[in-house]
Amino acid sequence: MAVIHIPTQVVHGGSKRAGTKCGRDTKYKSEHWKDTNRKITCKNCLR
Ligand SMILES: [Zn+2]
Prior knowledge:
Elements: E1 2-5, E2 10-15, E3 19-20, E4 33-36, H1 43-46
Antiparallel strand pairs: 1-2, 1-4, 2-3
C-alpha cells in the first residue's frame, strides 16, 4: 500500500489510516495525503 503527499508528489509506503512507513503523520494536514497505488518514491520508505 502507498500514500501520496500531494504538495510534494512524493509517494510513501503506508496508508492514510496508518501513517507512512518513514514515520510521517498522515493525520496532520490530512488533506495533503491520499491513498494511491502508485510506485513508492520516498527513499526512506524504500529502505
Ligand atoms: Zn516515506
